[in-house]
Specification:
heterodimer, A: Four Helix Bundle (Hemerythrin (Met), subunit A), 73% helix, B: 105 residues, mainly alpha, Helix Hairpins, transmembrane (chain A), NADH_UbQ/plastoQ_OxRdtase_su6 (chain A)
Chain lengths: 183, 105
C-alpha cells in the first residue's frame, strides 16, 4: 500500500515538474505546479508530517499558485510562448547536461551515505488512535521553545515583504506621464 | 510480493534530487521570469521533501521545523519577486529575462 502511494505521488510530482518546465503556456505551467505541490503534500502525509502537508496545501496551492495566476492574468501573458527559437544555441544542451550531472552527483552521494543515517534525534511522535495531533503539538513545542526568536523574526520578514511589495507595485506619477495611460 | 516492499527514506531523497534537477534545468533553460520562479518553487519543494525524509529517518522533529520556516520564506520571496516582475512589466510589454540586459550601463 505504501509502495502504491509512493508511486502515485512520484508520478504526480515528476509529471507536474516536467509540465512546469516544458509547457509553453504559463497558465498550464502554474496548474502543473499545483499537481507537484499536491504530490509533495501526499508524501508528507505518508511520512507522518501531517501538519506540514496541510500547510503545504494552504500556503502553496492556496496562496502562492493563486498569486502566480493573478500575475499571469494581470500582465496578460497567458498566451503560449515560442519555445523553438533559442538565442543562445548551446544553452539548452549545456543546461540539460548540467542538470543530469548534478542529479547524478546527488544520487551518488545519497547512495553512498545512506548507511550512515542513524536515529539521533529525540524521536518523532506519530499520530495514533488515542493521539491525533501528536505531530502538531511536537512541532509547536519545537517552534515556540527552541526557535521562538526565529519565529518572531519571521513576522518582521513578512511585514517587510508586504511593505516592499506595496512600494514596488505602487503606481507612480512619473509612470503615468511616460505612458499616458491610466490603468 | 510487491506489497511487502516499503519505500525507504532513500527513495524520497532520490526523488527530491531528481525534482531539484528538473527545477534547476527549468531555471537555466526558460526565459519567462514567471516560469523561472515556478522552477525555483520546485527546487524549494525538493529541499522540503529532503528535510522531511531525513527528519523521519533520523527521528528528529527539527527537520520539520525547518520546512515550516522554508515555507514562510518562500511565501515572502514569491510576493517580492512577483512585485518586481509586475513593476518591470509595467514598463516593458515583452516578458523575457533577456530584456534585463537593457540595465547594462
Amino acid at each position: 500500500m505504501e509502495l502504491f502511494v509512493f508511486i502515485c505521488a512520484s508520478v504526480m510530482v515528476l509529471g507536474g515538474a516536467l509540465g512546469v518546465v516544458l509547457r509553453s503556456n504559463p497558465v498550464h505551467a502554474a496548474l502543473s505546479l499545483v499537481l507537484t505541490l499536491f504530490g509533495i503534500a501526499v508524501m508528507f502525509v505518508s511520512q507522518h508530517a501531517e501538519f506540514l502537508a496541510a500547510v503545504q496545501v494552504v500556503v502553496y496551492a492556496g496562496a502562492i499558485v493563486v498569486l502566480f495566476l493573478f500575475v499571469i492574468m494581470l500582465l496578460g501573458v497567458d498566451r503560449a510562448e515560442n519555445l523553438e527559437t533559442e538565442p543562445l544555441g548551446i544553452q539548452r544542451p549545456l543546461a540539460i547536461v548540467l542538470g543530469f550531472g548534478f542529479v547524478a552527483l546527488l544520487v551518488t552521494t545519497i547512495l553512498q551515505g545512506r548507511d550512515s543515517l542513524n536515529m539521533r534525534g529525540d524521536g518523532i511522535n506519530v499520530a495514533s488512535d488515542g493521539d491525533h495531533d501528536a505531530n502538531i503539538r511536537q512541532i509547536a513545542r519545537s517552534i515556540f521553545s527552541n526557535y521562538v526568536v526565529a519565529f518572531e523574526v519571521t513576522s518582521v520578514l513578512l511585514i517587510v515583504a508586504v511593505v516592499g511589495t506595496v512600494v514596488l507595485a505602487r503606481k507612480r506619477k512619473s509612470d503615468k506621464d511616460l505612458t499616458g495611460v491610466t490603468a | 510480493m510487491l506489497a511487502t516492499i516499503v519505500p525507504t527514506s532513500t527513495w524520497y531523497l532520490i526523488l527530491g534530487a531528481v525534482l531539484f534537477g528538473i527545477g534547476m534545468v527549468g531555471v537555466l533553460v526558460r526565459r519567462n521570469p514567471l516560469i523561472m520562479f515556478m522552477s525555483i518553487e520546485l527546487m524549494l519543494n525538493a529541499v522540503n521533501l529532503t528535510f522531511v525524509a531525513l527528519s523521519t529517518k533520523l527521528t528528529d522533529i527539527n527537520g520539520q521545523t525547518a520546512v515550516f520556516f522554508v515555507l514562510v520564506v518562500a511565501a515572502a520571496e514569491v510576493v517580492v519577486g512577483l512585485g518586481i516582475i509586475v513593476a518591470i512589466m509595467r514598463r516593458r510589454s515583452e516578458i523575457s529575462v533577456d530584456d534585463l540586459s537593457a540595465l547594462k550601463g
